[in-house]
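2024-03-11 09:14:02 INFO worker-7 job=invfold-0412 stage=load source=structure_tokens
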């Protein structure tokens, strides 16, 4: 009985591992935008351009969180977009409180949508919190796939 209780507690405290992970066999194989936060910022801004989002301004909220304001001028469906780009999240995982905080910011600022990019992964609870919300979660796997599709992967 105690073993069952411990297993249940462990399930509640340990974040699930992402289904798909990326590994670089040599540290030099890791793209520069995954090693340098300014290159990460540049890559994120180039990524947004591919979606016809006009860059307005950005600020590093702290050492690993870049907040970006964007504008989509498309009639009817356009509007203000907010982006949060997290460079090297703690434990390589973005937890639910970061996503719900960003959702609150999107709603509070009256933005049409949000884009959340990370060089890590999102926890299962964070992914669930974003469902049916005006936000796109982009983990490192998706980000690299988009960059390759757009010819931006160095």
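2024-03-11 09:14:09 INFO worker-7 stage=emit residues=154
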């Amino acid at each position: 009985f105690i073993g069952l209780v411990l297993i249940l507690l462990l399930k509640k405290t340990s974040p699930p591992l992402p289904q798909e992970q990326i590994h670089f066999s040599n540290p030099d194989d890791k793209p520069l935008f995954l090693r340098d936060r300014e290159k990460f910022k540049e890559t994120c801004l180039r990524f947004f351009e591919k979606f016809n989002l006009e860059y307005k301004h950005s600020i590093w909220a702290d050492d690993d969180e870049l907040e970006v304001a964007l504008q989509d001028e498309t009639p009817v469906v356009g509007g203000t977009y907010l982006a949060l780009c997290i460079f090297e999240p703690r434990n390589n995982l973005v937890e639910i409180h970061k996503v719900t905080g960003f959702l609150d910011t999107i709603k509070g600022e009256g933005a049409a949508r949000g884009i959340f990019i990370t060089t890590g992964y999102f926890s299962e609870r964070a992914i669930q919190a974003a469902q049916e919300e005006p936000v796109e979660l982009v983990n490192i796997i998706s980000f690299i796939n988009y960059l390759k599709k757009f010819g931006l992967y160095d």
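2024-03-11 09:14:09 INFO worker-7 stage=report msg="Residues 1-8 have pLDDT under 50 and may be disordered."
2024-03-11 09:14:10 INFO worker-7 job finished
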